[in-house]
């Protein structure tokens, strides 16, 4: 997709800044150094999970890091491991030219706040003192200033608050404590690096003086010149993949002469850093850099991890939830280590990132279906080896291609295997049976060995055998997707803080834009119709909303993003629904490039989990738009007992609870979701509505009969949960009083054959295009809606827009729209529905009043007002400026019937 204006603008701004930096210094008087990189001596991670699993931050050997730095063209080596300079001391002992450096984790006393601080040029005794002082950042920085040891604050907008909400004044304290800031971090994106730059540019002497008085901090105790802020860069590389490709230019006047006079590179570099003669160089890490880093790290975890020990993990300091999650992850990793094909893939990929081509045995052992995957891995290795400057560009294309190719293989094998599981075709398996399989035995080994657990659950499926075919592509695809998720999560973990800062700076503020995900858009159902009407209004009023759908043939258009599916699954049980599965990484890239900052999802099956993935990855709010009552659907379509239905209810509740809010279309659902069965907070459940979406221009479909016989009309899907099998009985009762009454049925669906048999004299029109439906409304006398399943009933508003009243059951959606006896009719059962129809047809004056009332009620459902309320409920009150002609005189909320 074309990048959004916001995404392109931040790229252009930051690239222009880097171009200016490149011309700051005379090349003959400039040194290149990566001031922020790590090797295997960063062995105690700050993250709790790393400590619980006993994982170092990297297994990279010092000599491999040095080789990568030299290959990237750096003039001087430093290794900034966490809280130790062991690698620097080792290199010095080997007579290497090294600038000593460390990245210390420092703490604010009495505050749940920790930051990383880079420091250079110390000796062993000073290192010990710094380690003692790092638990009080004020003492640490004061000591560094007294000893003339330059400090740099890396990634200033990323720090550790240990689960607490970030105090906005933390940046004020940073400005008082530091004079050197890393504005180019190779593992951060354009937005964070640019925000950092703009914040530093905003640090005027007046602001620093005001903050000094506010916090009671004298910045001269920590900075030589608190008003002069200087800029650095570093790769923040842990794997040796991008080391040296981001870094800092150091200006050393008379460099050649001073070196000839016997001065050392470390001494000259330290002087340049201390005096602030620095500028960043390199390129910004987009998603491919951090994703590749996580991929390589995960590969090394699987290849090198040892059992962390159950007792040690349980007795370790930390919340029980984290311990349980780490225990599950440890078991997963141990299972991974048992699968030789996955291990071979991870090892081959890891070596390719180092520039080493796959071994002969790997080439010979790869099956035909994985040849394209091996070709991509070879391309990565070849580029790293021969064209390192193109390495990020190749990764940007290769990683998504790897995921797509492996996912294609996974789904192909999955379709083969599903067809063999106890049924010739899983799509024909009754819902009752599928629900009973929604259980996992407490004895996990039963999943892998085929041992039955005694009850109907997933142990009926021998996952061990299934994994013989699926393990490698499934785990490989999961590793790729997991790395993409982890990298994005790290970049956006403090998004609220970044948004607030951008607003305060008045620059680089992320736009307010919604991505609306749905599994259905062109299908013949009410959800699709409502979403198509939504798109029409979004396009008409240029609202900050884009709809996203996965479909094999549909074309993108303004405000409609379409991606092609990896595969599709057909579910007869869900009303002949076909679910198209998108490429997760493609959705993720679209979200990033599109400049979105919030999500709505309309469907649960595929796009629902993807919406939650994006919510967690990008730290954005997500809402669910409830179109379908699945419990009602299952109760009418299946013979599930109360226990099975309760299990489904709990699953639905767990799903809805993950969202920041839920939009519902009627009061019944609002009460249900906020009641004891679902227990969602009242403030998170919002009422919304649809509107009549039928156009004004209609095609001639069928002239009204000359005998003026009464016409009862049904429009909608022909399925039993829609109550269509009530129509014949209602019609027969009406004909006893009005024998000439006709029944017109517009729609199609699985119950059509059965309905035709029950009402052979009815007029069946089949599926009618939306543009032709108003002609039916204009000819009919009364619309029948015998469904107790509809959450709203768009067809009611469509009929009302043509002045046609509706006779519906007194439940959920219909009763929230229809005012009985004024704009339509409500009944409790078939007998009462027939009686209401007869009474209506008996009285022409009554018909006239209801027609006028129906048209008036339809006017209450203004799409502009409904959409304005929707955006407001998502915190976008100022996102849309309606024109004066679009102003609404009606009350803000639609009054219930």
From TrEMBL:
Supply the Pfam families for this chain: Glyco_trans_1_4
Q: Does the keyword Transferase apply?
A: yes
Q: Name one GO molecular function term.
A: glycosyltransferase activity
Any keyword Transcription regulation? no
The residues that cross the membrane are none
Keywords for the protein's UniProt record, in alphabetical order? Transferase
Gene3D superfamilies, from UniProt? Glycogen Phosphorylase B, Metal-dependent hydrolases
Which InterPro entries does this entry report, sorted A to Z?
Glycosyltransferase_grp1, Pol/histidinol_Pase-like
Q: What is this protein called?
A: Glycosyltransferase
- Source organism per UniProt: Marinobacterium lacunae
């Amino acid at each position: 997709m074309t990048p959004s204006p916001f995404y392109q603008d931040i790229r252009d701004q930051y690239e222009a800044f880097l171009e200016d930096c490149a011309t700051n210094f005379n090349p003959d008087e400039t040194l290149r150094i990566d001031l922020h990189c790590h090797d295997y001596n960063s062995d105690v991670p700050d993250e709790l999970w790393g400590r619980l699993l006993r994982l170092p931050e990297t297994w990279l050997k010092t000599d491999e890091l040095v080789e990568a730095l030299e290959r990237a063209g750096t003039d001087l080596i430093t290794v900034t491991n966490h809280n130790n300079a062991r690698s620097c001391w080792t290199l010095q002992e080997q007579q290497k030219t090294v600038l000593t450096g460390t990245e210390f984790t420092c703490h604010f006393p009495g505050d749940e706040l920790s930051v990383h601080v880079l420091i250079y040029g110390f000796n062993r005794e000073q290192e010990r003192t710094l380690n003692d002082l790092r638990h009080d950042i004020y003492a640490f920085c004061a000591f560094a200033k007294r000893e003339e040891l330059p400090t740099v604050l890396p990634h200033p907008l990323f720090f550790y608050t240990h689960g607490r909400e970030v105090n906005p004044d933390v940046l004020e304290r940073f400005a008082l404590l530091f004079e050197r800031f890393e504005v180019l971090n190779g593992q951060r994106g354009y937005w964070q690096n640019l925000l950092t730059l703009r914040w530093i540019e905003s640090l005027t002497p007046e602001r620093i003086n005001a903050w000094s008085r506010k916090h009671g901090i004298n910045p001269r105790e920590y900075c030589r010149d608190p008003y002069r802020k200087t800029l650095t860069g570093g790769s923040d590389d842990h794997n040796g993949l991008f080391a040296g490709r981001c870094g800092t230019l150091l200006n050393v006047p008379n460099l050649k002469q001073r070196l000839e006079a016997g001065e050392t590179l470390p001494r000259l570099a330290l002087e340049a850093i201390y005096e602030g003669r620095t500028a960043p160089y390199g390129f910004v890490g987009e998603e491919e850099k951090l994703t590749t880093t996580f991929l390589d790290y995960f590969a090394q975890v699987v290849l090198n991890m040892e059992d962390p020990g159950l007792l040690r993990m349980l007795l370790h300091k930390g919340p029980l939830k984290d311990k349980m999650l780490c225990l599950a992850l440890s078991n997963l990793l141990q299972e991974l280590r048992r699968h030789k094909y996955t291990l071979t893939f991870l090892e081959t990929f890891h070596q390719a990132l180092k520039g080493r081509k796959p071994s002969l045995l790997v080439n010979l052992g790869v099956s035909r279906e994985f040849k394209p995957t091996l070709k991509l891995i070879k391309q990565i290795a070849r580029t790293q080896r021969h064209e390192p400057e193109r390495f990020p560009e190749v990764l940007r294309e290769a990683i998504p291609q790897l995921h797509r190719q492996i996912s294609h293989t996974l789904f192909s094998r999955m379709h083969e295997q599903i067809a063999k599981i106890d049924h010739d075709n899983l799509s024909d398996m009754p819902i009752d049976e599928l629900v009973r399989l929604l259980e996992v035995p407490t004895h996990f080994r039963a999943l892998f060995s085929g041992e039955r657990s005694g009850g109907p659950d997933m142990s009926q499926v021998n996952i061990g055998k299934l994994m013989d075919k699926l393990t490698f592509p499934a785990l490989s695809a999961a590793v790729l997707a997991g790395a993409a998720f982890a990298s994005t999560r790290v970049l956006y973990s403090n998004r609220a803080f970044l948004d607030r800062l951008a607003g305060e700076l008045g620059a680089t503020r992320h736009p307010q834009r919604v991505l609306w995900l749905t599994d259905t858009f062109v299908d013949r159902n009410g959800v699709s119709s409502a979403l198509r009407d939504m798109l029409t209004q979004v396009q008409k009023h240029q609202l900050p909303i884009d709809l996203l759908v996965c479909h094999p043939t549909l074309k993108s258009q303004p405000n409609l993003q379409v991606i092609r599916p990896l595969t599709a699954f057909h579910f007869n049980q869900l009303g002949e629904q076909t679910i198209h599965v998108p490429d997760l990484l493609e959705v993720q890239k679209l979200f990033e490039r599109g400049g979105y900052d919030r999500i709505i999802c309309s469907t649960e099956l595929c796009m629902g989990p993807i919406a939650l993935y994006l919510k967690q990855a990008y730290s954005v709010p997500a809402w669910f738009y409830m179109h379908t009552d699945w419990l009602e659907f299952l109760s009418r379509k299946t013979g599930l007992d109360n226990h099975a239905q309760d299990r489904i209810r709990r699953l639905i509740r767990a799903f809805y609870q993950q969202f920041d809010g839920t939009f519902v279309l009627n009061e019944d659902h609002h009460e249900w979701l906020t009641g004891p069965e679902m227990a969602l907070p009242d403030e998170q459940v919002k009422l919304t509505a649809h509107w009549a979406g039928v156009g004004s221009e209609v095609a001639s479909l069928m002239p009204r009969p000359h005998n003026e016989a009464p016409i009862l009309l049904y429009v909608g899907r022909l399925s039993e949960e829609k109550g269509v099998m009530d129509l014949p009985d209602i019609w027969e009762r009406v004909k006893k009083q009005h024998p000439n009454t006709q029944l017109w049925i517009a729609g199609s669906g699985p119950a059509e054959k059965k309905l035709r048999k029950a009402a052979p004299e009815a007029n069946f029109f089949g599926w009618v295009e939306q543009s032709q439906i108003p002609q039916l409304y204009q000819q009919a006398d009364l619309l029948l809606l015998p469904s107790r399943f509809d959450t709203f009933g768009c067809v009611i508003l469509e009929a009302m827009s043509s002045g046609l009243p509706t006779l519906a059951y007194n439940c959920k959606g219909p009763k929230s729209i229809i005012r009985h006896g004024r704009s339509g009719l409500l009944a409790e059962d078939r007998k009462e529905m027939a009686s209401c129809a007869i009474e209506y047809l008996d009285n022409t004056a009554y018909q006239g009043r209801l027609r006028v009332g129906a048209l008036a009620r339809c006017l209450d459902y203004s799409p502009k007002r409904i959409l304005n309320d929707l955006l407001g409920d998502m915190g976008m009150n100022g996102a849309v400026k309606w024109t004066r002609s679009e102003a609404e005189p009606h009350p803000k909320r639609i009054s219930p019937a």
